Amino acid sequence: MNDSFLRDCLFFTANRLGRTITKLAEEQFAPTGLTPMYGYLLLLVNGLPGITQKELAEKLSVTPSTLTRFVDKLEAKKLVERQVSGKSVQVFPTDKSRELEGTIRQASRNLHDAYAAVLGTESSDALSIDLLQASLELEKM
Amino acid sequence: MNDSFLRDCLFFTANRLGRTITKLAEEQFAPTGLTPMYGYLLLLVNGLPGITQKELAEKLSVTPSTLTRFVDKLEAKKLVERQVSGKSVQVFPTDKSRELEGTIRQASRNLHDAYAAVLGTESSDALSIDLLQASLELEKM
DNA sequence: CTATTTTGTTTGTACATACAAAATATAAAA
DNA sequence: TTTTATATTTTGTATGTACAAACAAAATAG
């Protein structure tokens, strides 16, 4: 039978890799007490205190509604603070999130090391760039 | 600030592309009345009548519990039938699903054409193969 | 041939994510 | 200055997906 779509279809292969690497990433991020997405969100907020939700949604390529939910959770954990500013909402780090910065960066490095050990450093880095490039082009459609 | 993880981290870039292409795929699959994942599941069942849920879960790289949910929905829509066989469950197509086969294959082609028009046929096909290869290797971990 | 283990499925629950519609707040126009 | 338009966020709701536990059937060991 013809099940070539299992390898030929970018929808399928991209989401498959997404599921696989999410699992690996969650393991590596366990010490942070956060899932990888929340960890990266915190890095952005720590690095750009006062960044708006709109900007965060764009950088992370999630919808504004999703971002609202993320910030709700981080706020509940006292990891960020909201400040309304005109029609935007700015997001600020807390002491607690600044303390987590190092742990998150370490988890991120561990994740990279883990998959690079399997896929090779060169090729996994190249793959990541190709993926970003592809999504940027498709988002323009 | 250092937000290089937005391009260097395979967790992030794979899932980003996954979100982007899922949206495109859902548009192209709209005429089938199914989301892409369900469409591909039906193609597998049509091509291998009596395939077990375990085999389907492996081919699609989702967990067995997820597959149960998928089959529940397709069964409710009269698009597949279950038949218990020992501790396994075999899944069979219905007339309705066989009628949909052509529509699904067309949607799949349209999806491929849509992203190939943006990314290039060669490079999008190569990317898809790289993605599958990467997930196969990471799933061995 | 019974007791234990393994394998496959289902169910309860939880989270990430999206879309559409509603709410909010500023900016622009009249 | 009141009205209208626009940008941002939030809320309601829905789907995909996972894990852990429960369950059922089969395989294996004693």
Automatic annotation (TrEMBL), chains A, B:
Species of provenance: Cohnella zeiphila
Keyword check for DNA-binding: yes
Keyword DNA-binding: yes
Domain of life: Bacteria
InterPro entries hit by this protein: ArsR-like_HTH (IPR011991), HTH_MarR-typ (IPR000835), MarR/SlyA-like (IPR039422), WH-like_DNA-bd_sf (IPR036388), WH_DNA-bd_sf (IPR036390)
Protein name as catalogued: MarR family transcriptional regulator
Keyword terms, alphabetized: DNA-binding
HTH marR-type domain residues: 7-141
GO biological process: response to stress
Pfam short name (any one): MarR_2
